[in-house]
Amino acid sequence: MRPIPMTLREQARAIWEAGVAAVASDRLVRNVVSCDSRTLSVCGESFAVGSLGGIIVLGTGKAGAGMASAIEAALGEELVDAKVTGWVNVPADCVRPLRRVVLHAARPAGVNEPTEEGVFGTQRILELAHNSGPNDVVLVLISGGGSALAPAPVPGISLADKQAVTRFLMRSGASIQELNTVRKHLSLFKGGGLARATSHARAVITLIISDVIGDPLDVIASGPTVEDTSTVADALAVLERFGAQPPQVPESIFTVLRHPAGVRSSKFKIGGELLGGGDNVVPPILN
User: Fold this and answer.
1) How many other C-beta atoms are found inside a 10 Å radius of the C-beta of residue 5?
2) Is 183:163 a contact under the CB 8 Å cutoff?
3) Which CA distances in Å does 2 have to 5, 204?
4) In what order do the strands lie in the sheet with 271-276?
5) In Å, what is the CA distance from 199 to each residue of 132, 133, 270?
């Protein structure tokens, strides 16, 4: 008996479902994280469970809830209760209770700009990062939308200032690369800021799910654990390209960029893996 041909609607749905399944955050995380009573394995790195001080789970992004849930499931209840602490900034509609990782509502659903709740959550992430010690393993969960979910303004600018420059660049048609070039130089978290905060940890491993074309690691969520190759001159050039000037963009933004507080160290070593992006989606769709 011949199979009944799919309608165009059914074909479209099947294509969409194949693409979504290919980048399901829980599946992607479980592919690279495993644990038994003796050994924790993450992205090919192994750690003796008995030698670990703690496992600190930090992150930001729209896929953060699924990623954090998968981490807890992979580690198992006993190890999670004994060793895990964590905080992940997510949109409000993604919040649900987990055993030890806090999913924090950093912005309302559908509002893609920094908020006071995001600032609070990012401060908590940085506190946990700074408190990590030489026996701790830090797992960083990064996914699309992470930039707006993790605002941490540098001294000299306010959240309102960051909101103003973000809105200006988005209205002006700036690319995500241009927008994040500016964001990184106005943040304590982005452009490697989180990596610098975890410098005392035994190991820091970043798990990344991309929604950026080409999957550039320094652009996804503005690269909180990735060395920033851009400069303040690059950020100023982006603003100049779009004709930014006060009062549309606050004077404080230009002041901070023209007179940065100091040279940011780029000497940090972070392990990690791009778990999913466009390359994961296309093959299942074509099939």
Assistant:
1) 7
2) no
3) 9, 54
4) 101-107, 84-91, 55-60, 137-143, 203-209, 271-276
5) 8, 9, 10
Please say if the pLDDT value at position 159 is more than 90: yes
Domains of the chain, start order: 52-152+187-228+264-275 (3.40.50.10180)
pTM for this entry:
0.86
pLDDT tens digits, one per residue of 25-67: 889 999 999 999 899 999 999 999 999 999 999 999 999 999 9
- State how far the Cα of 106 lies from the Cα of 155, in Å rounded to an integer: 21
pLDDT, tens digit, for every residue of 52-106? 999 999 999 999 999 999 999 999 999 999 999 999 999 999 999 999 999 999 9
